[in-house]
Every structure is written in structure tokens, then in C-alpha cells.
Specification:
The complex is a heterodimer. Chain A has 8 helices and 10 strands. By secondary structure, chain A is α/β, with parallel strands linked by helices. In chain A, a hairpin with a 2-residue loop joins strand 1 and strand 2. In chain A, helix 5 packs across helix 6. Chain B contains 11 helices and 3 strands. Helix content of chain B is 72%, strand content 6%. The radius of gyration of chain B is 32 Å and the shape is elongated. The longest helix of chain B is centred in the middle third of the chain and has 41 residues. A 3-stranded antiparallel sheet of chain B has the order 1-3-2. Chain B is mostly helical. The chains are: A alpha/beta, B mainly alpha. At the A-B interface, helix 3, helix 4, helix 5, helix 6 and helix 7 of A face helix 1 and helix 8 of B.
Chain lengths: 245, 314
């Protein structure tokens, strides 16, 4: 199941060239080469401490690589000045395991917040409409006025996804988005991410949920001790040998 | 579901929206957050008000001292040559002519006994004294404006033996008095400036800590803003505005108290201040109040900038 972008030879939206990240003597990510194309959904798997979160942080420019290059939608994340990080982050939506919603804002306000700070030129009506559209897209149009503590984990995660995609980023990264969810809800969230990828967004999901990885049959990138040890194309069921270690 | 995520942005009134959203984000949201966090900001606001009030009062005092120093310097160059009551007009004229011819002298004037009494009666506490005597106790004088303060002693010495001069108190010259006053004023001025600097440092520290506390309390909000692509000024701007508001409100309160206190003191001691605080009036107090307000705004903004820079860059 190759993305159309590959078939059409589109350039990579996410590209890591020999990306290495060290924390003192600890090598969290070691010489990773990776390219993700538009519309591609890929999983990032590996044991705890393998470097999955570090890789996602490199993509969102929360950290710089110690060496190597990170290119996001044509922007050199490895060489960006602090003043241009915001430009890059508007091209990258992020979803976290703990949702990171503001509890005093409603679901609609949380989604609108993401849009308001990333696009000052949007009118109030536009922000409202687009935030509501995004909530409806994740199946929560009827919970727009609810506050996060009033919602289930799956619903909060879907609000977080709506917030991440409302400004139409080119790339969406998700760090253990199903970590706090039951299998059924996790499956719904993954189908939602698959749908987002279908509209052209590059989606990279770091997860421990191997059931979902096997069922989705998408590209799987395996990290072990900071090294990309396996890049399994979509449509194949790999052994995921690290899981037994 | 999910069919609208890649819909194109409608383009309408983008510029106006940008301006309105920017102003709202920077000022309205900052004002709301400031009011919401007033409980946390309160101690800093109180401390800063107190410090600015002290600064205002110290500033007014410093101005008074500066004016006193200027007056003192001006008076020090004027030598009053006191005349005997029975001095002959011809002798007086001869002495005036002699003094006028002196190269060290810039000008020579004359104050009669009647004029001396009139001047004394305008001075605080002197009117009763002047009226208590049976006859006018104040002598006539030749008022000599000496070019250089350093020559006052020499000019005073040159008139001491002249016939019309009062043998008991020939002149107003008091060796060393002027120097002592100038030195005392300099010391007071330096101490005042050091005190003002200290107050400024404390005010900045208090406000910076207050803003840091505010940022820490809103850490998750700030983190989410950064993650969804808010520009640096959007994250930092509202905190700076909040700091400016803290400084502005503190400055306004301190300025008003400075104005009221200054005007009240000037009014209460009007007769005394004509001598002790020359030039200090309601206009000067209002200017001091305005400076306190501006200082509050600047200190609040600067402290916030410093705090935001340190807290968000770390």
C-alpha cells in the first residue's frame, strides 16, 4: 500500500539525514536516516528508551540534533534560529499521550486556541467555524461545549487531534496517542489518524501498541538503542523481534 | 467525518483581523490574565507601590536639595556690607564707588534700613521679631555681587576699615560656611542617589519574581502555545504587558500619593518653604508624580522582559 506521493515521486515532507542526538555521553539517537512522504502513515516502534520521543522532538524542533540534518517540509529544522521555530511548528501538529489540553477551556476553545495562536489573520467566526469543523471531523461536534475533565480519555485524545490538525499542518506526529486508551478506543483514534493521512498529511505515530501496528499494516520504523534497525514497508507483517527482548 | 480538514482558508479582511487579534492577544488577554492573577501579583504590586512612593518622595527631596544648593551657591557670591546707622551719605557713596571699581566685583546695590526691615518681615518668624523692637533693628547695607566665590573673603577684608561700615558686624562673610554646606549637600545628594538605585533594584527584583511566578503558574498554557506554533512575541508579549500593568498601576498609585503628599506639605508649610524649599510647588509635585508613573511603567516592563527572557529561554 504505497502512498500516492511515492508513486508520483513527490519530495519527502520529513527527512532525517544522519541525525544523531546525544545527552552528554548518552546517545539517544544514532545516525538515523529516514524519509516520509506526503500522505504517508508510519509507525515508530521500539522498547522504552529506544529514542522514539527524541526523534519526534527533533521533528517538532523541541531539540536540535547533535549532528546530522532534519528537514521538515523544506525547512532545515537542524539549523533554524529560535525566531523561526514557530514557522516550523505551524507545519507540524503534535499529539501527546497525556493530551495536553487546557482544563479551563471547553473542547471548542482548546481547538480554537491552537488556531488563534498559529494564525492571527483568522477572524473570530472563521476560528469558531474551523474549530467546530475539526471537532466534527473527529466525531465530537456535539461535545464542543464540554470541558476536558468531563470527557473520556478517548474523547480528550480526539480533541487533541482536532487541535493538532485544525491549522492544517503538513506533518502530524503522535507520541503514544493510544497509551491511555482501551483497545477499542485506541483503534478508533488510529483510524482517525489514517483518515488524516489520506488527505495528504504525513503522520508518524510512536507507539507500544503492537496489535494496532500489526492490524494497520503500515510502514513500521523500528528503533533500538537509538538506531533505526528496521524500516519495514507498508503491507508487510514483520516480526518486531525487539518486543520479545 | 474528516472531510473538511484540508478545506482552503477563506480570505477576508486578513489585515484587520491580524491587527485586531494582535491587539486583543497582547492587551485584552493580558489585562484579563492580570486581573485573574491579581492574588498572585498583589504582593508585588504593593511592594512596588511602596518603593515607587519612596522613590518619588526621595526624588522630591533631592530636587529640593539641588535647588537649595543652587540658591546657596548664588547667595555665597553676594556680600552684604552692613553700614552704621550714622554713616554719612558721602562716605557710603565713596565706598560704593570704590567697590564698583574693584575688578573682582560684578555689581553693587544698596538696601536701606526701611528696605531691610521690609525684607525681614517677609521671612518666616522674623515679622514678630521685627515688630518687637521699638525702632528698626536692621542695618542698611551695600550689596556686593562678587564674580567668584573664592574672592568674597578678600573683598570683605578690603572694606573692613572704611568709615561707614558697622564696626561690630562689618559684613555677612562667614568663612567656611559655604564650603561646609556644599559638602553636606553633596553627601546628601550621593546618599539619595544610592538610595534611589537601591529602591530601583528592589522594585525590579520584586516585579521580576512576580512575573516568574505567573509564568510558572501558566506553564502548561505557555508550553501548549509554543507547541502549536505561537511566535515568540505572542508568548512573551502578554507577560511584558502584564509587568507594565503592574508597574503602571503601582506607579499611578505612588504618583498620586506623591502628588497629594507633596502639595499638602508645600501648602502646610508655605511660609517655611519659601526659604527651605525654594521652587518646590504643586507643578513640581505633579512632575514628580508623572515621573513616578513613567518609572513604574518602565520598571515593570523591564523587569518582565528580564524575567520572561530568563524563564522562557531556560
Amino acid at each position: 500500500m504505497l502512498p500516492t506521493s511515492i508513486l508520483l515521486g513527490l519530495p519527502a515532507l520529513v527527512e532525517l539525514v544522519g541525525a544523531t542526538r546525544q545527552y552528554g555521553d548518552l546517545v539517544a539517537l544514532d545516525d538515523v536516516h529516514l524519509a516520509l512522504r506526503p500522505g504517508e502513515l508510519a509507525f515508530l516502534v521500539g522498547p522504552s528508551g529506544a529514542g522514539k520521543t527524541t526523534l519526534l522532538k527533533l521533528i517538532n524542533r523541541e531539540i536540535r540534533p547533535s549532528s546530522g540534518e532534519v528537514w521538515i517540509d523544506g525547512m532545515p529544522a537542524h539549523a533554524l534560529s529560535a525566531s523561526r521555530i514557530a514557522d516550523l511548528r505551524r507545519r507540524v501538529g503534535v499529539v501527546y499521550q497525556d493530551y495536553k489540553l487546557l482544563p479551563k477551556l471547553t473542547a471548542l476553545e482548546n481547538v480554537a486556541f491552537g488556531l488563534q495562536v498559529s494564525d492571527l489573520s483568522a477572524s473570530d467566526a472563521e476560528v469558531h467555524d474551523r474549530a467546530l469543523d475539526a471537532l466534527e471531523a473527529v466525531g465530537l461536534g456535539d461535545r464542543a461545549g464540554s470541558f476536558p475533565p468531563e470527557m473520556s480519555g478517548g474523547q480528550q485524545q480526539r480533541v487533541a487531534i482536532a487541535r493538532a490538525v485544525v491549522s492544517q499542518p503538513a506533518v502530524l506526529v503522535a507520541d503514544e496517542p493510544t497509551g491511555n486508551l482501551d483497545l477499542e478506543t485506541a483503534w478508533q483514534v488510529m483510524k482517525l489518524l489514517e483518515q488524516i493521512a489520506r488527505f495528504g498529511t504525513t503522520v508518524l505515530v510512536a507507539t507500544h501498541n503492537l496489535d494496532i501496528v500489526r492490524r494497520m499494516q503500515r510502514r513500521v520504523l523500528t528503533l533500538v538503542d537509538g538506531r533505526l534497525v528496521r524500516d519495514q514497508p507498508a503491507g508487510r507483517v514483520g516480526r518486531l523481534a525487539w518486543a520479545s527482548s | 467525518m474528516g472531510v473538511v480538514l484540508n478545506a482552503p482558508f477563506p480570505r477576508r479582511r486578513r489585515l484587520l483581523n491580524t491587527i485586531r487579534n494582535t491587539l486583543r492577544h497582547l492587551f485584552l488577554d493580558a489585562a484579563r490574565a492580570w486581573i485573574r492573577n491579581l492574588g498572585a501579583t498583589g504582593p508585588a504590586l504593593g511592594s512596588m507601590t511602596l518603593l515607587l512612593l519612596l522613590s518619588g518622595l526621595v526624588g522630591l527631596t533631592a530636587y529640593t536639595i539641588q535647588r537649595l544648593a543652587a540658591t546657596q551657591a548664588s547667595n555665597a557670591a553676594v556680600l552684604h556690607v552692613y553700614l552704621r546707622d550714622d554713616a554719612q551719605p558721602a562716605d557710603v557713596m565713596a565706598l560704593r564707588t570704590k567697590l564698583s571699581a574693584d575688578r573682582r566685583v560684578a555689581g553693587v546695590g544698596y538696601t536701606s534700613k526701611a528696605a531691610a526691615l521690609q525684607q525681614a518681615q517677609t521671612r518666616p518668624g522674623m515679622s514678630d521679631l521685627a515688630g518687637a523692637a521699638d525702632e528698626n533693628p536692621f542695618p542698611a547695607s551695600i550689596d556686593v555681587k562678587v564674580r567668584s566665590v573664592a574672592d568674597v573673603g578678600a573683598v570683605a577684608g578690603s572694606v573692613g576699615t572704611n568709615a561707614p561700615v558697622d564696626p561690630i558686624l562689618p559684613t555677612s562673610y562667614n568663612p567656611g560656611a559655604s564650603d561646609r554646606i556644599q559638602k553636606a549637600l553633596l553627601i546628601v545628594g550621593i546618599a539619595g542617589a544610592a538610595f534611589l538605585l537601591l529602591l530601583g533594584f528592589v522594585a525590579v527584583t520584586v516585579t521580576a519574581n512576580s512575573i516568574r511566578t505567573t509564568i510558572m503558574a501558566r506553564e502548561s498554557e505557555v508550553a501548549i502555545m509554543q507547541l502549536v506554533g505561537a511566535r515568540r512575541w505572542m508568548v512573551r508579549g502578554p507577560f511584558v504587558v502584564e509587568g507594565a500593568m503592574t508597574g503602571g498601576v503601582a506607579g499611578l498609585a505612588a504618583g498620586l500619593v506623591t502628588l497629594v503628599a507633596g502639595v499638602a506639605v508645600v501648602a502646610a508649610g508655605r511660609s517655611t518653604f519659601a526659604q527651605i524649599a525654594p521652587g518646590v510647588d504643586a507643578r513640581v509635585c505633579a512632575l514628580a508624580a508623572g515621573l513616578v508613573l513613567v518609572t513604574g511603567l518602565l520598571l515593570g516592563s523591564a523587569a518582565s522582559l528580564y524575567s520572561v527572557h530568563r524563564q522562557l529561554e531556560s
